[in-house]
Amino acid sequence: MELDLGFAWIMTGVLAAVALISYFYSRSFVGQEKALFLLWQRSGLQLSQEVEEMEPSLKHGLRKRSSASWLGAFFGVLMAAAGLLVVPSSSAVDYVVFALVPATCVGSIGAEVWVALRDTVFHPVDSGKRIARIRSVRLIDYVRPVLVWMAPFFVIVAVALALGAMGVGAKTPGGIGEAHWGRPLAAVAVSLVVMALCFGISRRVLLQPQPAKDREELMWDDAMRATLLLKLFQLTAVLATYAASMALQSLISVAEIASGSQPSGYLDSYVFPLYFIPLFIFGRLWATGYFVQKLWSNGGTVNKSATDSASA
Amino acid sequence: MILVDPRSPVPPFEQIRVQLLTMIGSAELPPGSRLPTVRKLAADLEVAPNTVARAYRELELSGVIESKGRHGTFVSYHEDPVKKQAQKAALDFADVVRKLRLSEKEAVDLLSQALRGQF
Predict the structure, then answer these.
(1) How far is CA A238 from the centre of its chain?
(2) What is the value of pTM for the model shown?
């Protein structure tokens, strides 16, 4: 018990230290250069002459989001630690899996979303030209449909499996199987709430103004938007898959109890890695500039003739 | 893409209207395309929402775009928005001619002179 509690505090300390160090790193010159390099690499956009002009604004935007993200993560760790003080967990693994990691992820992404909704990346000068996209954009212009629908799919699977586990558990002698419902049901409820929040927030992100003076600025703004939306759906998909794998574990355990044997936990080790499927898929698709294909396939050219006639 | 130049002598609403009309005419914005909301486009272009609303309203009156309430504003399904607008102008002209009790020949002559810039 004490060893467990010690491990929980060590993990809390490690995550808090990582968040703080990353926060200071993100504010450093090297950190900002790296953030810009990563954005460029993942989006696949061209680094042109114009990028050098807008680099200060881009770096400023990236630094603000990155700093907020790491501060949010640190705040999440503090919240989890406060929870551990109030209710000392009986299992360090439960604490890390159900409190520490989710609180850190939610804090990190929540703070980044908050900054993204509060500030725009670029601020064109008052008297300068402004450019805007004249077509309404959708979520699937930034995130691949397979990634958008992954969370709802796994949540439905998780609900079905949890209901199955409840159905089988009700038939177990003395209702022993009921002990296995709590965690999956909690995980399903959390993933449902997070999924609803993510869809709501992504709608707000799409309505956020994108002031830009030329197509280059709008493109890079799109790149930052795509990165944020991808993070949101990564979190949602991971939680949903996690809920599904827990519900499957629960069903297996309850089925073993119903058949008269003790839960072996043998299959658990095979089921649990399902959790990594979305991480793997996201990892594979992370680098592709999907939004470039969807929104900038025609090069995003400004209607020259119309502009000239309007300015004449 | 749409571009607004605040330093241009052309008012911003007219810049938006003309560019939209050209894009729809050239099928760059095909029928059924959903346009951004007035508030969103105004925020992107950093102009007053009334400016965008006026451009949208004029295009809607010409039948080029149509508002479907909460669902948003869409490019109308018809052949050529420029032709549609010209037809509307011709109808308005015919209306005035009828009210003034002018003959068809007189009306056509007046129109020809106007097109040649003889006034």
Answers:
(1) 8
(2) 0.78
